[in-house]
Fold these 2 entries.
Entry 1:
Amino acid sequence: MKRILVTGGAGFIGSHLCEKLLNDGHEVACLDNFFTGKKQKIVHLLDNPYFELIRHDVTHPYYIEVDEIYNLACPASPVSYQYNPIKTIKTSVMGAINMLGLAKRVKAKILQASTSEVYGDPMINPQHEDYWGNVNPIGIRSCYDEGKRCAESLFVNYRLQNEVRIKIIRIFNTYGPNMEPDDGRVVSNFVMQALKGEDITVYGDGTQTRSFQYVSDLLEGMVRMMNTGDDCVGPINIGNPGEFTMLELANEILDITGSKSKIIHLPLPEDDPIQRQPDISLAREKLNNWEPKVPLREGLEKTVAYFEQLLKEGKG
Ligand code: NAD
Ligand code: UDP
Ligand code: UDP
């Protein structure tokens, strides 16, 4: 049994991770400031004596004794991370410094939830870890992209200078139950719009692509990464190479829901990446042949069922 800290544990991915780690027999401390996270996502874990919920902001120092840290604290939807961009940068940068300081003090292993956004609007497709990216350092996405890039730099330098045992994964667009219905990301937007019979809001002409990974595949990759030896540091891409246009995604969701919603087009936000697909050969090699198992259709069906239930309970 390990003692594990999950920052951002009340968020979409963090809530699933806390549950998985408890099921795997570990003791879990879930730390969150509830900016985009919600108690409802982890309320079912609260009566487990091996689960602890801590309201705290990672931009402030925090002291605890743990064996491992998963650093997930950071809003991930463009709408949320652009709401208070300075705070987003502080969360990524000061949060990383504090969690690395903690890892250094207690000699814990620490995994950073980095992102495909470090590749910005990529000039090559698919993206391999060696690609340095194409990020606008002063654009509206930069608070997130540059914050995450700086965090990666902090991680590798804490390893070099202080021998902290680090892991970096670059997560590609991930979806599934526990996403907030109104958090503004494309899968939750389209599914909610389809279920409510509202117009499906495709930004731009809808030919931009993303590669969508179901959350259980990410969790498997994440935990395998944490369990690698100290020489396996990353960064390693964790994503599903299945690449789709936003129009294809919209039509798939219309098909699954049987919705009569019509597709409308709204302006494409500034610096919206045109294409994105992970090269996962490194993950296959280093993570014991890890690869995603859940195809888009199946993952979307589960996600639609989750949002349908929310609507039934009046929570949509
Ligand atoms: P989310 O917004 O649902 O979860 C983020 C969590 O962090 C929330 O619970 C939020 O309240 C918490 N948080 C934010 N700022 C904090 C702070 N200063 N102190 C403490 N807690 C704070 O997003 P998610 O999709 O679950 O993403 C989790 C992590 O994975 C993020 O770091 C994100 O950048 C990364 N990631 C996610 C995706 C994706 O597609 N979901 C892709 C790439 C990377
Ligand atoms: N820190 C923390 N928890 C700990 C140890 C450190 O939050 O258990 C914070 C500490 O307050 C500092 C940061 O992590 O701001 C970086 O720590 P480090 O030891 O690298 O730097 P220093 O304390 O020398 O500035
Ligand atoms: N998008 C869209 N309609 C929406 C929300 C998003 O067409 O209602 C597009 C967005 O412009 C982007 C893609 O979907 O091209 C993925 O957006 P998301 O915010 O989910 O993630 P990110 O851009 O960070 O990959």
Entry 2:
Amino acid sequence: MRSKIVAGNWKMNKNLDETRALINELVQKLPETSAEVMVAPTFVNLSEAVKSVAGSKVEVVAQNMHFEESGAFTGEIAPGMLKNIGVNTVILGHSERRAYFGETDTLLKKKVDRALAQGMRMIFCFGEELEDRKAGKHFDVVESQLRNALFHLPKEAWKHIVLAYEPVWAIGTGETASPEQAQEMHAFIRETITSGFGEEIAEAVTILYGGSVKPGNASEIFSKPDVDGGLIGGAALKADDFIGIINGI
Ligand code: 13P
């Protein structure tokens, strides 16, 4: 059985007080669930967030990291610094990092390698833009994002990798991929992983869907056989909404 995950990507939201309050509410109200539950607050609040989740099943994860371990990289965060404060999972390749901060497949490949060298787990994000889908190129785009950043890896690496398909046109827009569109792409992703690494690995890898998942649409999307959970933006910022989504798994 592959693990199911519901992860909240808080992006650049919530100050320290709000971070503590949201986590406390989440921990208090969290239902019994077989899914792993993760939250990704901003860097500056990670350390406190780790303290706030102590004793609960919520894991604190990072939204990004640098590909080097130390050095003259002003403003950057090294993976070892994350591990040192108890953060062992990192989101890599989010479309906002790709679009606004110039992260390319080549750069992401380096980050993937560094995360693995540190023994970290990663949620690797990818997905097509609206123009790609309109042009019928969405499968090609997704395949090349996977190939360029992940296909050099040894098979053992895959136990550290969670994939997150996030079509850019569905992020923060209120427009979701339909459950059928999500399933179609997730099945394609699993086939692509099968072609590179074999069926055993492809069947074991958790593939999350992200893009305007809400309490009202979560269970239908999560009911699809190749959708193993979600990476949630806006709806992760309210405990009740996030819990509504967790209940959909
Ligand atoms: P929304 O849920 O706000 O569309 O964001 C999705 C996302 O980008 C999660 O990483």
